[in-house]
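Batch job 17 of 40 flagged for manual review because the log was empty.
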Amino acid sequence: MKAQFGFRFLPLVCNYFDSVCALDILFLRRDKPGDLIKGGGDIDNRVKVLLDALRVPQNHDELAGASPGQNEDPFCCLLEDDKLVTELHVTTDQLFTPLKEDEAQNDVHLIIHVRTIPLNSPTL
Protein backbone atom coordinates (compact mmCIF):
# COMPACT_ATOMS: atom_id res chain seq x y z
CA MET A 1 0.00 0.00 0.00
CA LYS A 2 1.31 3.42 -0.93
CA ALA A 3 0.05 6.46 1.00
CA GLN A 4 0.36 9.80 -0.77
CA PHE A 5 -1.71 12.88 -1.64
CA GLY A 6 -4.34 11.95 0.97
CA PHE A 7 -4.97 8.53 -0.61
CA ARG A 8 -3.84 5.02 0.33
CA PHE A 9 -3.27 3.42 -3.08
CA LEU A 10 -3.44 -0.34 -3.46
CA PRO A 11 -2.06 -1.38 -6.85
CA LEU A 12 -2.63 -4.94 -8.05
CA VAL A 13 0.51 -5.05 -10.23
CA CYS A 14 3.47 -3.80 -8.23
CA ASN A 15 7.06 -4.40 -7.22
CA TYR A 16 5.94 -5.75 -3.83
CA PHE A 17 4.21 -8.69 -5.54
CA ASP A 18 7.11 -8.99 -8.01
CA SER A 19 4.72 -8.89 -10.94
CA VAL A 20 4.22 -7.25 -14.31
CA CYS A 21 1.28 -7.39 -16.70
CA ALA A 22 0.18 -7.65 -20.29
CA LEU A 23 -2.73 -5.55 -21.57
CA ASP A 24 -4.99 -6.37 -24.51
CA ILE A 25 -7.19 -3.36 -25.24
CA LEU A 26 -10.19 -3.15 -27.55
CA PHE A 27 -10.59 0.58 -28.20
CA LEU A 28 -14.05 1.41 -29.55
CA ARG A 29 -14.63 4.95 -30.80
CA ARG A 30 -17.23 6.73 -32.94
CA ASP A 31 -14.64 7.97 -35.46
CA LYS A 32 -14.56 6.20 -38.78
CA PRO A 33 -11.64 3.81 -39.33
CA GLY A 34 -8.55 5.84 -40.20
CA ASP A 35 -9.89 9.00 -38.49
CA LEU A 36 -7.76 8.58 -35.37
CA ILE A 37 -6.13 11.99 -35.63
CA LYS A 38 -9.19 14.23 -35.66
CA GLY A 39 -11.36 14.83 -32.62
CA GLY A 40 -10.06 13.08 -29.52
CA GLY A 41 -6.41 12.79 -30.53
CA ASP A 42 -4.26 10.14 -32.09
CA ILE A 43 -4.15 6.61 -30.72
CA ASP A 44 -0.71 6.79 -29.09
CA ASN A 45 -1.71 9.84 -27.04
CA ARG A 46 -4.99 8.22 -26.06
CA VAL A 47 -3.21 5.04 -24.91
CA LYS A 48 -0.66 7.11 -22.95
CA VAL A 49 -3.52 8.88 -21.11
CA LEU A 50 -5.12 5.50 -20.37
CA LEU A 51 -1.89 4.02 -18.97
CA ASP A 52 -1.41 7.11 -16.79
CA ALA A 53 -4.97 6.66 -15.47
CA LEU A 54 -4.33 3.02 -14.55
CA ARG A 55 -1.30 3.79 -12.34
CA VAL A 56 -0.69 5.45 -9.00
CA PRO A 57 -0.34 9.23 -9.58
CA GLN A 58 3.24 10.49 -9.62
CA ASN A 59 2.43 14.03 -8.51
CA HIS A 60 -0.42 15.94 -6.86
CA ASP A 61 -1.39 17.75 -10.07
CA GLU A 62 -2.51 14.46 -11.64
CA LEU A 63 -5.34 14.26 -9.10
CA ALA A 64 -6.88 17.58 -10.23
CA GLY A 65 -7.97 18.33 -6.65
CA ALA A 66 -9.63 14.95 -6.06
CA SER A 67 -9.75 13.44 -2.60
CA PRO A 68 -10.75 9.91 -1.56
CA GLY A 69 -14.45 9.18 -1.35
CA GLN A 70 -16.22 7.31 1.43
CA ASN A 71 -15.49 3.83 0.03
CA GLU A 72 -12.06 4.62 -1.45
CA ASP A 73 -9.76 3.62 1.38
CA PRO A 74 -7.79 1.89 0.13
CA PHE A 75 -8.03 3.27 -3.40
CA CYS A 76 -7.52 0.31 -5.72
CA CYS A 77 -5.72 0.77 -9.01
CA LEU A 78 -4.14 -1.56 -11.51
CA LEU A 79 -0.51 -0.41 -11.65
CA GLU A 80 2.07 0.92 -9.26
CA ASP A 81 3.88 2.30 -12.30
CA ASP A 82 3.15 2.00 -16.01
CA LYS A 83 6.66 0.61 -16.58
CA LEU A 84 5.22 -2.66 -15.21
CA VAL A 85 3.29 -3.12 -18.47
CA THR A 86 5.56 -5.43 -20.45
CA GLU A 87 3.17 -6.28 -23.27
CA LEU A 88 0.57 -4.07 -24.93
CA HIS A 89 -1.82 -4.95 -27.73
CA VAL A 90 -4.34 -2.36 -28.93
CA THR A 91 -7.12 -2.99 -31.44
CA THR A 92 -9.24 -0.04 -32.56
CA ASP A 93 -12.68 -0.37 -34.06
CA GLN A 94 -15.77 1.70 -34.59
CA LEU A 95 -18.42 2.08 -31.88
CA PHE A 96 -21.89 1.85 -33.38
CA THR A 97 -24.07 2.47 -30.32
CA PRO A 98 -26.12 5.67 -30.49
CA LEU A 99 -24.77 8.70 -28.68
CA LYS A 100 -26.49 9.02 -25.28
CA GLU A 101 -27.46 12.36 -23.74
CA ASP A 102 -24.57 12.29 -21.24
CA GLU A 103 -21.93 11.23 -23.81
CA ALA A 104 -19.69 13.27 -26.08
CA GLN A 105 -18.79 12.36 -29.64
CA ASN A 106 -15.16 11.76 -28.59
CA ASP A 107 -16.03 9.40 -25.70
CA VAL A 108 -14.69 5.89 -26.15
CA HIS A 109 -15.55 2.47 -24.80
CA LEU A 110 -12.68 0.24 -23.74
CA ILE A 111 -12.55 -3.46 -23.10
CA ILE A 112 -9.30 -4.28 -21.32
CA HIS A 113 -8.01 -7.78 -20.69
CA VAL A 114 -5.25 -7.83 -18.07
CA ARG A 115 -2.89 -10.77 -17.66
CA THR A 116 -0.73 -10.56 -14.56
CA ILE A 117 2.67 -12.19 -14.81
CA PRO A 118 4.63 -13.23 -11.70
CA LEU A 119 8.35 -12.65 -12.15
CA ASN A 120 9.43 -15.26 -9.62
CA SER A 121 7.51 -18.47 -9.11
CA PRO A 122 7.36 -19.76 -5.55
CA THR A 123 9.33 -22.94 -5.01
CA LEU A 124 7.53 -25.98 -3.68
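Reviewer: the log was empty due to a logging misconfiguration, but the result itself is present. The chain has one helix and six strands. Unflagging and moving on to job 18.
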